[in-house]
């Protein structure tokens, strides 16, 4: 699910010393914003987020379900777990596979 509005940085009462945190640190977000479900949180400070989308097949005039999987940085102050619905925002490249950061847990 794509959103066009940029989210404001929320100031929470928690003190976070993580420089890669989009809320408390210096990491700026830009570009795409998605909502999805965390399917894996086994890696350190990384979650895998997935969501379904409909893909058009013009030849058959039908749609098929496809899914998108993205790895995102999971700051310690947010600490999303498997099964949580989260909002992720695009940022600079954090590693070879991570270009997104979790900004909030939607439950």
In summary, what is this structure?
This protein is mainly β.
Notes on the structure:
With 107 residues, this protein is mostly beta strands. It has strands at residues 2-3, 29-40, 46-57, 62-73, 85-91, 100-105. Strands 2-3-4-6-5 form a 5-stranded mixed β-barrel. The two termini are 16 Å apart. The mean pLDDT is 89.
Percent of residues in beta strands? Answer: over 45%
**What's the CATH class, please?**
Mainly Beta
The quaternary organization reads as single chain
Q: What is the CA–CA distance across the termini?
A: 16 Å
Low-pLDDT runs: none
| Tally of separate domains | 1
Give the mean pLDDT: 89
Lateral strand order in the biggest sheet? 2-3-4-6-5
Features of the shown structure:
single chain; mainly beta; OB fold (Dihydrolipoamide Acetyltransferase, E2P); five-stranded mixed β-barrel
Secondary structure topology:
Layout: E1 2-3, E2 29-40, E3 46-57, E4 62-73, E5 85-91, E6 100-105
Parallel strand pairs: 4-6
Antiparallel strand pairs: 1-2, 2-3, 2-5, 3-4, 5-6
